Amino acid sequence: MIPKTMSTQHPDNVYIPFFAREPQLGGEDEIIEAFYAFSVLGIEEQMWDFEGKEVDEFVVKKLLERYPHFFRKHKLGEDFRLTPRVPNPSVEKAEAKLLLETLESISRSADYSKIFYGKEIAPIFEVILPMTTSANEINRVYDLYKRYIVGKQYKRVYDVKLYEWIGKFFPEEINVIPLFETKDAILNSAEILREYLHGKDFEYQRVFLARSDPAMNYGLISAVVYDKYALFKLQELEEEESVSIYPIIGVGSAPFRGHLVPENVENVLEEYRGAQTFTIQSSFKYDNPPREVIKAVEKIKSSKRKEAEPINGQILLILRKYEIEYSKQIKALAKLVREVAKFVPSRRKRKLHIGLFGYARDVNGFALPRAIKFTASLYSLGVPPEVLGLNALSEKDVEVISNVYNGIYKDLSLAFRYFNPKSAEKFKFLRDILKMSQLFEFERNEEHCEITNKILDGEINEELIIKAASIRGFLG
């Protein structure tokens, strides 16, 4: 059974989860979080993020040891999944060897599982490869595990073969889930996957389409259209290759990052027809009453995957002028965003992505914070990132786009509630965006405006940022 819901470890929540011992969640907290997601919320899969975070590599052992009653009834690897997100050596040079360590831990986790269940059940049998841009990258991870992690067991160590000494390696192969994050990778995801599937006899293939980083890089509207275009092309590939393809959409709480909140579940399911699995991020889980969260998760799980909407490639031409304008505006705001981002609280103990041992997340050549801090910073300035670049489009353009991006009016109306007109005094281009707001129905949130007024006047601090986030119902 392919999961409908995947719990992620992205720190986009306003409030500290009840089980956390301090504001920043560490490895031990995330063990509890995984169990909470499985046992209380009914989320079917937990992404375990080795890419960019300090996480516990003994998660399987600890889950089985601490919660034996639950996991004897609900098998890890069958009823629930744990799926690592591994470093991509093509991008993360300093973390490259962590890929080897993560893959090595898969068979070790299977040993714990065999002792616990008394039979071979692989608790981990898939990995997510971020920033995938080619079939070669996926093949390398697949081949690395099959030939060098598992394959080495038949090598002789002095007087015995390795498996005779330390035991057999299981599972014999793993599935690799490519995570496509750039424009080119998303638009060409079907062709990349076609090349990877060639010559393989898989029962199914999962594929992960990013939503937050594309929005940062190309703007909200482009991010939605590109993902929907990819869903349609992946559906065509599924029919042509006669192999089941199950897309994952990485949605967050803010409209900029997907607008997946309990009250908007049905709209998101309809928007991303063709997607099989939806990510449930921290804000969804912890900034809403548990009953609402459980009900919303059940709604996603009980939904049936629909056919993806056909997307005419001509619409991509409209987006060119929008992306150019969006990029100019982000460049103008970048310095202020970086300044505010310093005061946005972190909820996870995360490795540096910019610095001596990190890789830079940049937009068209200039460094910016990660998506959650980026979104939170702009909202804190009274400039919702959803509205940036909008002035490059005509009213007719917006109407045409609405035929593809069904929720554009709803999402932008919500965003404009938090647009502070005072921000237009600092940046001229925001005046044109303010004029565009007339196309949308909304009532400005004055309480949010009062807080962002202080931040715009230079009173930047964590308390004000959290107050504003509490009004919105999400940090970023």
UniProtKB/TrEMBL annotation:
Signal peptide: none annotated. It catalyses: oxaloacetate + phosphate = phosphoenolpyruvate + hydrogencarbonate. Its EC number is 4.1.1.31. It is an enzyme of class 4 (lyase). Keywords: Carbon dioxide fixation, Lyase, Magnesium. One of its GO terms (molecular function) is magnesium ion binding. One of its GO terms (biological process) is tricarboxylic acid cycle. The keyword Ion transport does not apply. Belongs to the PEPCase type 2 family. HAMAP family: PEPcase_type2 (MF_01904). Catalyzes the irreversible beta-carboxylation of phosphoenolpyruvate (PEP) to form oxaloacetate (OAA), a four-carbon dicarboxylic acid source for the tricarboxylic acid cycle. This is Phosphoenolpyruvate carboxylase.
